[in-house]
Each structure stands twice: as structure tokens, then as C-alpha cells.
Amino acid sequence: MVQIYKAPLKDMKFLIRDFINSESNKIYKNSNIEQNDLEMILDEAAKLCEEILLPINQSGDIEGCKLEHGIVSTPKGFKEAYKNFTENGWQGVSVNEKYGGQNLPYFLNMFLDEMISSSNMSFGLYPGLTSNAIEAIEKNASEDIKNLYLPKLASGEWSGTMNLTEPQCGTDLGLTKTMATPQKDGSYKLTGTKIFITCGEHDLSKNIIHLVLAKTPNAPKGIKGISLFIVPKIIPNSDGTLGENNSLECGSIEKKMGINASPTCVMHYNEATGWLIGDLNKGMKAMFIMMNGARLMVGVQGLGMAEIAYQSALHYAKERLQGRSLNGSKSLDKQADPILVHPEIRKNLLKIKTLTEGLRGLMAWTGLQVDIAKIEKDKFNKQNADDWVSLMTPIIKSFATDVGCEATNLAVQIYGGHGYIKDHGIEQLVRDARIAPIYEGTNGIQALDLVGRKMPMHTGRLLKSFFHEVKEYIEKNSFNYNLKDFMPLLIKSYTRLQQVTAFIAAEGLKDPDEAAGAAVDYLKMFALVSIGYVWTKYAEISFNKLNNDPEGFYKAKIESGKYYMTKLLPETGSLMSSILSGAKSYNKYNDEYFDLGFKI
Amino acid sequence: MIKTITVIGSGLMGSAIAAHFTNCGCKVNLLDILSKKNSNRNILAEKSIKKLLKIKPSPITLKSNIKNIIPGNIDDDLEIINESDWIIEAIVENLEIKQKLYEKIEKIMKKDLIISSNTSTIPISKLTKGRNDIFKKNFLITHFFNPPRYLKLLEIVCSEKTNQVIKEKIINFSDFYLGKSIIETKDTPGFIGNRIGIFWIERAAIEAINHNLSVEEADILIKNIFNVPKTGVFGLIDIVGLDLIPTVVKSLLENIPKNDLYKKLHKKPEIFDFMISNKFYGRKAESGFYKLVNKDGGKIKYSLNLQTKKYESSHKALIPNFNLIKKNLKQFLEIENKYSFYCRRVLLDILYYVLLIYEEISSDIISIDTAMKDGFGWKLGPFEIIDILGSDWIKNELQKEGLALPKLLNLIENKIFYKVDNNEIKYFDFIQNKYKKIKRGNGIILLSDIKKVKKPIKKISTASLWDIDDGITVFEIHSKSNTLDINTLEFLNQMIDLVSSSYKAMIIYNEGEFFSAGANLGEAMFLGNIGLESELDKILTRGQEVFTKLKYSNFPVVAAPFNLTLGGACEIVLQSNYVQAHIESYIGLPEAALGILPAWGGCKEMLSRFKNNKSIPKGPMPAILKAFEVIGSAKVSSSAHEAIQFGFLKKTDGITMNRNRLLYDAKVKALELIKDYKQPKKNNYNLPGITGFSAMKLYIDNLRSSGQISKHDQYVGETIAHVLSGGTTDINKQVDEEYISKLEKNAISKLFKKNLTIERIEHILETGKYLRN
Ligand SMILES: Cc1cc2nc3c(=O)[nH]c(=O)nc-3n(C[C@H](O)[C@H](O)[C@H](O)COP(=O)(O)OP(=O)(O)OC[C@H]3O[C@@H](n4cnc5c(N)ncnc54)[C@H](O)[C@@H]3O)c2cc1C
After folding, report:
1. How many CB atoms lie within 10 A of CB B168?
2. Can you tell me whether residue B474 is helix, strand or coil?
3. Which of A263, A295, B420, B662 would give a disulfide with A397, using CB separation of 3.0 to 4.6 Å?
4. CB-based contacts of A298: which residues, under 8 Å, 6+ apart?
5. Can you give the pLDDT at residue B761?
6. What is the pLDDT of residues A122-154, one digit of tens each?
7. Average per-residue pLDDT for chain A
8. Residue B526: φ, ψ to 5°
9. Is any atom of ligand 1 closer than 6 Å to the C-beta of A447?
10. Three-class SS of residue B3?
11. CA triple B511-B515-B521, angle to 5 deg
């Protein structure tokens, strides 16, 4: 038995056709693309993921990457898969046409990434980091650098990495030590050690382009003195052909919990040649420009992991026979009923399913806002789209990756002991999913970003993009009889979120520790309400489709929605009580008390 | 009583002093030397008077004050001094020239003519040398600080001969009518203010150069270390005028004792010479350490690079750990970087200098602290700063540098200069070596004093109610920018009930930087953004209810505004029963500029004000149009006098010239009002409705088509016109106050939803500036 995965194409197409269609037309109109094309692309991607990437997921985990003489070799099948992937143009899907990309909508890219993450999260990191590098270069670098690097990156001939972390500096990038010394010819020489660098060295692409955060000799202290540099493994000639090797190397690769088919490298830079990207000392700004995208994509990984966990667990729950339904046996011809009959199993499956489907809609909507912000002419509409994306980014990154962990764990639970042993590949999912809440800014940091930056920004203007949209929706639909099982619950949770938001804003002004203390709970509450809004909209749409619903797809949506609204959304109540009780019980807890239980 | 004065010398100081005397209703003769080249013999004085209208901030509280300055020249008109109650000499800082003038005066003066000199550095003994006894008896130094309307300090120096009655008369007049905070100083060079102030400026400038700081960096540090509003050291020099400094410095150096620290530390930076030779004198020369250059319709700020002597575009200084300055100054000073080194150097030099010379220049520490606060805009005086840093810190630092400890540091008990003891505020008297009670003059009550010895009746984080005896209470707002949020309104509501049952009157007053910036728009915006319109609605309704309750309560409410009094705060003023305003009250309803309108009763009150104003023609429209003009153009007064013209204050409201006397004056008024107090009657209105609206709309449309206002201005203007004309009423119907309140509320709720309004409010909250969109 192996991991089970079929791309959720129907669900994705539902989102494209029925959920985001109200606004996505604007995007199609602006490019020469049609909804049909998108669906065909999804079908193709599904094939790639199911037939090429999924089969090397488990083997890749077992084999892992190897470092010999500074060269990292990837597990069996990865080279071929990467070749297939790049030759079919998947790397450049959302890259600007100018650089050889296809400039497809961002929301589509999110669907593709989800499939890739589900079928092989490790594999996805190679092109994923290249995409991050492309975005950082495109938005910050000079024309010369863009013209030299972007076409090669967009084709996947070269790949990219992000070098932020150092031994002493993880979350706090102000502690960066890597030095960049300016040279007469305008280049820099970089010296220092970076750790945990995903795909820092491997054998899939011809060249690896490192984007490295470093300080120049006289830079201001801390976060304000950091600059971003482009440092290629092999220095390209101006015509794009490969020149000399740069003086950098991968010193070792980490042994780690999961994503074993992607190398996590220690990178040594020894007077390596690099060039400044963006302005001097404005490295963080440059990083932030691409951070929204990178963070959303990590959220997508969480979603992808939840999806494969769901599909595998569901498959198993239907096959595994244990015990009898308490309501009378379901499979009298067999010795036992499938475990799907047991309430706890059903509840857990539905938990994963409704969170996954809800998140997928929230992400598609957010991806669409990225696209809208790019083309929108009206200042306030553009601002609103931008605001939505900035607001939702930490929420999606954090909540979806937590869901990824919870879902994979629940899947193991549904498999029982067979989940814990390696054969089924289910424990791998837990291990792979576990990194997503950590990298690209830990989830704790995401929550602080939400409460400390996004919430007060422009006196709450970012919040407006969400609160006003939902408010208008509520005002329009509060008397919609179809939604009688939805609206009251949505309104209740929305009102709670308003109250808690006002509370945290007021408390935060008095004592930032109070706001920070509530951050993680608040983010979760926000995510639950957002997804509640998505489910209510699904239900609204589905009720109008019931007369032509041969497979019961829409009926199922409504029923899933009811589960979400009654079983998961009410958690907003307990989160609210917790938040309103303040953060003193831990913020003011005496440091000495922590070790009283064992200190002699 | 002093009614007419003569100022001789119409330079920067002379004319500004003349101007300030007109602010309290005096007639002023302004004499300068005779112009021989010009057929108009008074041309010099006349030019100076004209210039007064251009100076910013304005030296006069009303443009028309200027008419009370009569130009003249010394040759033709000196006789006029005998028609004056007081003459002030403000001619060039040159002993010989001054002495010659005095000689002339001495010859013709009447016996009781009071004469004073505005010298900033020359000792009185030298000035009166050779004069007769009558002259000496009538002579004193009155040293004003520039700009005299805004800087409160007045230094008075008397000789042994000066008549005490005359001295008292000048002190009283300057205190009550000129609003001065007066210190008597010894007859030493530069007196107190300039002796320390010039030293401070020079030290701060030289050390900035030594520490390789940019002008912006030095300015933001000095500004925050000494808490001077607006400018730091270089900005201050630009205002004063760099060309004036060398004369003062020279005169100081010539006259101070031989072993004075200043002599040792004095240096004239090369860049000063460079700037003076290039006429970069500062603001008046339009280039100094900073300059503004017009470009593309806007202004771009440049600053002088102290090292290269070239102008570069000015950048906001970024100081690491900047917030520590406010949070923990001592910790900031201990950081090992050039910024902290600089601050430590300057602070230490100033404090050390003061500790060396205090006895020479003053007979008490209070005068020294007052001089620096009221003459140079420091928030705390040197001794107060020492109290904050701790005398141990100073001792330690001085020891590190191998300097002998000034004896005063060893004398003070508990290591502080000011303390509260037995409910009394005391200062250390270095003459008798003991702590003594601080005596405020008659007619001065300071809330800051009360706060040191009393607890509030009730307090929340943004406001407090204080008992100031005799049944009178003070409602103090102390939120950020003293804005009003929903909690403060609720609290005010409760306090009205409390005063109503247990006290006799309420004064609305505080001692913050300004009275209040109005409603807490940040709170309103945030609630709007998260869709809590119901809360927003509550703020509006509560504001209207509470202010109405304030007006019609069974006790008198006296508002005592000063400085900025905007929007919601102006509406408090409008709905108080009486106002005692400081002359420097900048009252206004700037809502329209933010895309909203006054909705806590501002429209309602302005309508009834102008309706009852006798100088406005009868009939429904004139009053409405006047209200529309004031509200629609977002007027803010530049003085209490102008506030009367705009209708924010009534002619019957009181004006206090001296900020320190504001609370006392308000209390006197409250005590007067509580004798058989009757609450006002509610207003009724006959408003023209749509016909009135059309008239205003025509006017707005004209402004729009001539490009004077934006589309959103037009929309806001029409919304205001709708409210002021009474909505859908007509002239035959009578409507009440509640009716107009409702119109106000509906109108503002509508405006709050507009993106362009939101953008304006966001902009002012983030930048402090108005956005035209
Ligand atoms: C498999 C893997 C791949 C990675 N790939 C890359 C890569 O490609 N490029 C790269 O640059 N880095 C990469 N990283 C590094 C990763 O981004 C960091 O591990 C992450 O940023 C956290 O830093 P840290 O591990 O030093 O934890 P720390 O920063 O030490 O944090 C420890 C804990 O403290 C919390 N915390 C820290 N600071 C605060 C604060 N101010 N307020 C509240 N809580 C706080 C954190 O949330 C966390 O829970 C990778 C890491 C792993 C494990």
C-alpha cells in the first residue's frame, strides 16, 4: 500500500467556475486566456503529479539526498522528474512573458502548487525556491540582472535559493553576520556561513542562483543594515553561458525529520562574488516584497499535505474492517464493518475535508486578489485587493500549515498502528508537513505580524478589506432562507471577531505584551471566521445549483458546510473567552516557577 | 495703569515688542532713527511695522492691532515719550549709542516716566553710568525673548537705585497684560537666560560638529534631550539668525569673569564664518542650516552638510534606540555610540556650567529653571533635569572626567532639588541651605501643583476629575493628544452627574501641550474599518448627549482652552456655559478639511451663535451663511481674539493673557456663576430648508467650477449646507436642537463611508498633515 492521491480537480474547477468567477472575468479579459485553458492546464498538472511526482515521494523520503565531495545527489527519479517538469514549462507558469514565462493567473499557480505539494512536497521545494528567487529578482534587481538571470530561471535550467538563516540568526535577521565587501567593479565579495538552505546544492539544474542577505562593512546595526545579493554558484558570462565557479560550497547537509528528498544545506561563502539587488541596506524591504508570495505558497504546502492525508485516510477508512457500527452492522457479508462507520472516524475525516476545502477557497480568493491588484485601475479597489492579500498572508500561512500538521496526524490516527509504521507512507506525511509551520517565518511570527503590523496598519484599513466584505455579504444574505443554518452562525462568529479585534487593538495600545499574548489565538479565530465565510458562500452557490446536481456535488457541499459551521466554527467562542481573559496568566507568570517541579 | 508706551528701535525685537503690546490693547509709538535719505522721515519705523504682517508665526493676535502702532523718528518725535506710561529702548546692542540716547531722554523726560532697556547682555551699572538719580530711579532692564508674543520669559534687572514701586508696576503689568513669566536676575552679563542659553547653543553646535553628526541628527537629539518643541539647536539658530549670535557671544565673553568655563570652552566654528560670509543667516535669509527650495509646486527641504559645507536634501535622522530617550534617558546616555556621546557631552557641560555659576547669576534655582523653560522652550529646567538623572549620575560623570564636584551637589538632601513634603512642594534654597515652600503668586493655580499633593476625585486612563476647593472641580483630559474617545465621554458623563450632586461647578482644563485635538479619529476609523458602525454610532450619539448634558446641567461649566482646541474640543468650548480662554487659543472646526463635519453639536451651536449675533443682519440666511463660511472653510483661529471674530468665543467670554493664570481666572468666573446659577434655555430654529441649501450650493458650485475646491470638497460642502439649512424643513416650521443633532449625525455617518474621507483621515493620523483629494 502506498500513499493515495488524486488531484481534487472537481473541487478546483468548482472554485474556478462558481466561486471566484464573479471577479476572475476581469483577469481573463485582461489577458488572452480563458477559463477553459485554465482547466486544461489543471488536468495536465494533475497527470504530472499523479504519474510522475507521487510515485517518487516515498522512495525519495527513504533514499534521501547524499553529499559527496561537495556535490549533492538527489534520490532516484528526481532528475527525470525535474527534466519532465521544466521541459513542459511548469517552472515559468506565472512568470512574466518577457522572461519566457506564461504569465498565468496567480490563483492558478496556487492550485498547481497544491497538487505538487500533495504528491511530493520535497520535489516541490526545488521549483518553489526558484519561484521565490524569480520574484525577488524581478521586483528588485536592475534590468541587466533581470535579463541575464530570469530567462534561465524561468525555464528551470537554473534554479534558485534563499539564504537568510545563519547559526546565530533565525527569526531575528538583524543578527546577520555574513559580510559583503564592495569591489571596485561594483560587485561584492561575500564571506560567511548560511545554514538550513533548502536546495542550496543539488544535481537537478545546471546552475544555482543564491539570493543572500548580508551586511556591508559600514552598514547600520541590526535589521536596517541588511542588503540582498545575488550570488551564482557558477558565474555566468554576459551572454548567459556558464563561466567560472564561484567560491562557495555546500559544507554539509542536515539529517532531519522530513522533506528528506530535498537537501537542507550548510553553505560556505568564501569571498564569493555577488551583486547587490535593490538598494543598499534595504534588503529586508526587498525580502518583504516577495515574502507575501513565499508565505502564501508555504500555506499551500500545508493545504497540499492535508489533502493527501485526507485521501489516504479516507481510502483506508473504507477498506479497513474493524468492529461494528453501533447502529447495526453495515456490511453483514463481512466479518466487520469498515471503520468509516465509527463516529469518531467520520468526524475526523470531515474535519480534514471541510478545513481543506474551505482553505482552498480562501486561498483561491486571495490568489485572485493578487491578480486583481496587478490589473486594477481604480485606486481604492486596487488598494482593497492589496490590503486583503497582506492581511490574509499570515493567516493563510499559519493556519493552513497548522491544518497540514493536524490533518496528517489525524490520518495516522485513522490508520492506527499501520499509520505509525513506515509501510503506508503515512508517518512521512506527518514528518514532511511539520516543517511548514517553522520556515518562512514561524507561525508565532505570523501571528505577531497579524496583530502587531497588519492590524494597526493605516488605522485598521487592512482589516476593512475583510470586515466590510463580510459585513456586506451578511447584510445581503441575512434573510436568505436557504442559508438559515449558516447565517446565524456566521454572524455570531463575525461579531465575536469584531469584538475581539476591538479588544486587542485597545489593549495593545496600553500593553503590547497583551496583544502579542493573544496573537496566536486571534489568528486562529480570524482563520476560522474567514473559512466560515467561505463555507457560507459555498452553500449559497450550491443551493442555486441543486436542480442540476447529478453527482450530488453541490448537495455534498451544503452538508459539509453544515458540519463546518456547527462543529468547527464554534471554537471561536472558546478562543474569544481565552483572549478576553487577557495574557497575564502567562506573561506575568514568575520565571522562577517554571522549574520548581524539578529544581533541587 | 499703562496704556501708551513708546518703543525706541524698530528692529526685529523692537517692532515685535511693540506688536505684543498692542495684543493687550496698548497704543504704541515706535520710533527709529531719522531717515535722512528718504523724504519720508519715518520710513524705517513704517517699514518695520509693515513687515510685522509678514512674520510667521504672527506677532499680533489680530491684523487690525497694527493700527495701534504709530511710527515716528527719534529726531522729530522723541517728545512723545512724555505722553507715554513706559518707554522701552530696543536699539542696537552698543553701550555708547545707548548711553547717548539715554542722555537725550534724560534731558526732556517727565519725572515719572518709566524707562527700560531690552539689552540682552549689558549690565545695568554700565547703562546708567553718568545718568542722574531720577533717571536711575525710573530705569530698569526688561529683557524680552524673541518672539515676545510666544516666549514667555521676561528678565527684569534693577539697580539699587531703581524705585521699587516702579518695579512692581512693571512686573504686574507684564504678568497680567503681556502674559509674561518674570524672573528677577542679578546684574550679570547675559543675565540668566542668555548666559546659559548661548552657552548651550554654542556647545550643542560645536559638539555636533566634533561628533560628526548631521544637522538633523543633532537637532532631533537636542530637541528630545531638552524637550524643546519643534526645533533643535540648528533649527533654533536659523530662527534666531546666525548673524546675531557673534555680537551676543562677544559681549558675553567680554563681560563674564576671567575663569568662567565658557571662556575655556568657547570656539567659533569655521562653518559659522563660512555661513555668515555667504549670508546664510537662517530663515530671514531663506537659507541657514536648513533651507526650503520651491520645486514642482512643493517645497523641498535641504540641510547643510557640516563637513562639506554643501546643501544636501534633508533626511529624517534615524537614531538607534531613539525611544530610550523618553523611556530611560540615563540608559540612553550610557550607550557607546556617537549619538549618546554627543548627548552626554552637551548635557554634562550645561549642567556643570549651571552648577558653577548659579550663585553668581541668581538668588534661587527656580529662576534658573524658569529662564530655560520659558526663554528657550525647555520642558524641564537644568535642576529639574538633574533631579531626573539623579545627582549621583552627575557626580559620577564629573568624577570620571576628573572635575571637582560643585558644592551644591553635596548640599542637597536626598539628592534632589525639588520635593513634596507634608503636602507642600518645596525647592532647595541655596542661600539658607534648606528646602522652602514654592510660593506661587496671587491669582495663580497650577494643576501640576495640585497633582503633586492631591489625589483625583475619580480617574480613568484618559481623564481625571480634580477638586480645586470651594466646590469647584476640574475635568482634565490626559489622553494622547488629549483626544476624546468613547471611554472619556462616558467618564465625562458620569462626572457631570457627580458634580451635579456633590459639587458646584466644573472647569474643563488641562496642562498638556494643548487643550485637545478633538475626537479620537483613530478610534473611530478603526471601529469603522472593522465594521463596528454601531460603536461608531455610539460615539456620535454619546458625544452629542454628553455635550448637551454639559450645557444644560444644573451647574456652570467653564471651559478654559489654550493652544490647539480643535473639532470635538471646540465643540466643548461651544457648549460650555462660559469660556475663559488663554490668548494663545487656536480654536477651530477643521472637520471639513478631513471630509467630515462637526457633529457633536458644532453645526447646531454655530447656527445659534450667529443667529443671536447682533452684528449679523437679521433674516434666516445671513447667520446660516456665516456658519457655513466658518465650518465649510475649516477655520481655525490664530488667537483668542480671532476666535471671537470667527464666532467660537463670545464677546462676553474671558481672555487670560498669562497662561499660568488661566485656571485661577476660570475658577473666579465659576465662583461668580454659581451664585444663583440658571441653566440656559434650549434653542429653537426656523431654517429655510431646500431654498437655503440652493443658495449655498450655488456658491459651492462656483468654487468648484473655478477650480478652487476638489470634487470631494464640493460633496462635503453640500453635506454641510444640507445640515445648516435644516434639511427638509422650511422657514415656517420650528425645529429644535435634537432635530439638528440628528441631521449632523446622519451627515457625518454618510461622510465617514466615503473613501476620500477615509483617505484624508488616514493621512492626518499618519502624517499629521491635511490631504487635499
Ligand atoms: C528544513 C528547513 C528548511 C529551511 N530552509 C531555509 C531556507 O531555504 N533559507 C533560509 O534562509 N532558512 C531556511 N530555514 C530556516 C528557517 O526559516 C528558520 O529555522 C526559522 O526562520 C526559525 O529560525 P530558528 O530556527 O533560528 O528559530 P528561532 O528564531 O530561534 O525561534 C525559536 C522559537 O522562538 C520563537 N520566536 C523567535 N523570535 C521570536 C519573537 N521575536 N517573538 C516571538 N516568538 C519568537 C519562534 O517562533 C520559535 O518558536 C529552513 C529550516 C528548516 C528546518
Report:
1. 10
2. strand
3. A295
4. A397, A401, A436, A439, A440
5. 95
6. 999 999 999 999 999 999 999 999 999 999 999
7. 95
8. -60, -45
9. no
10. coil
11. 130
Q: Give the Cα separation of A555 and A539 in Å (integer).
A: 9
Grid cell 472637520 — which residue? B591
Length of chain A: 600
Q: Which three cell numbers stand for residue B505?
A: 461647578
CB A214 within 8 A of CB A179: yes
A455 lies in some domain: yes
Could you read off the pLDDT of B3-34 as tens digits, one per residue? 999 999 999 899 999 999 999 999 999 999 98
Confirm if A244 and A259 have CB atoms less than 8 A apart: no
Cβ contacts of B689 within 8 Å, gap of 6 or more: B725, B726, B727, B728, B729, B730, B731
Q: Is residue A493 part of a domain?
A: yes
A461: closest chain B residue by CA: B529
pLDDT above 90 for B316: no
Domain B193-414 has CATH 1.10.10.10: no
At residue B259, the pLDDT reads: 93
**Tens digits of per-residue pLDDT, B198-209?**
999 999 999 999
Share of chain B above pLDDT 70, in %: 100
Q: How far is the CA of A164 from the centre of ligand 1 (A)?
A: 10
**Reported confidence tier of residue B765, pLDDT bands at 50, 70, 90:** very high
Distances (CA, A) of B344 to B186, B260, B377: 29, 21, 20
Strands B463-467, A226-232: pairing is: unpaired
Residue A561 within a domain: yes
Residues of A in contact with B529 (CB under 8 A): 459-461, 463-464, 467-468
Cβ proximity of B357 and B195 under 8 Å: yes
CB B72 within 8 A of CB B30: yes
Q: d(Cα B377, Cα B349) in Å, to the nearest integer?
A: 19
Q: Cβ distance B627 to B685 under 8 Å?
A: no
For CATH 3.40.50.720, list the domain ranges present in chain B: 4-184
Residues of A forming the active site = 440
A242 touching B, CB under 8 A?
no
Phi, psi of B520 (to 5 degrees): -75, 90
What is the least distance, in Å, from the CA of A501 to any CA of chain B? 8
Q: What are the residues whose beta carbons fall under 8 Å from the beta carbon of B679, sequence distance 6 or more?
A: B551, B552, B553, B554, B577
- Strand B654-656's sheet: what is its strand order? B458-459, B463-467, B472-477, B505-508, B557-559, B578-582, B654-656
Contact B525 A502 (CB under 8 A): no
ipTM associated with this complex: 0.90
Q: Looking at ligand 1, which atom is closest to the CA of residue A129?
A: 8
Residue B773 has pLDDT above 80, yes or no: yes
DSSP alpha helix (H) spans, B24-117:
43-52, 74-77, 95-108
Name the minimum distance, in Å, from the CA of B221 to any CA of chain A. Answer: 18
Q: Tell me the pLDDT of chain B averaged across its residues.
A: 93
Instruction: Please write the tens of the pLDDT for every residue from B104-122.
Output: 999 999 999 999 999 988 8
pLDDT band at A211 (very low <50, low <70, confident <90, very high): very high
- Stronger pLDDT, B326 or B667, i.e. the higher one: B667
Average pLDDT estimate for B118-145 = 93
For A315, the 3-state DSSP assignment is helix
Q: The CATH number of B448-589+636-680 is which of 3.40.50.1010, 3.40.640.10, 3.40.630.180, 3.90.226.10?
A: 3.90.226.10
* Distance (Å, whole) CA A118 – CA A429: 9
Nearest Cα to B723, choosing from B603, B559, B641?
Answer: B603
Domain B4-184 top-level CATH class: alpha beta
Q: What is the number of alpha carbons within 13 Å of residue B658 lying toward its C-beta? A: 24
Domain that holds residue A513: 450-583
Q: Is the CB of A126 under 6 A from ligand 1?
A: no
Which residue from B10, B50, B20 is spatially nearest to B145, judged by alpha carbons? Answer: B20
Q: What pLDDT is recorded for position B555?
A: 97
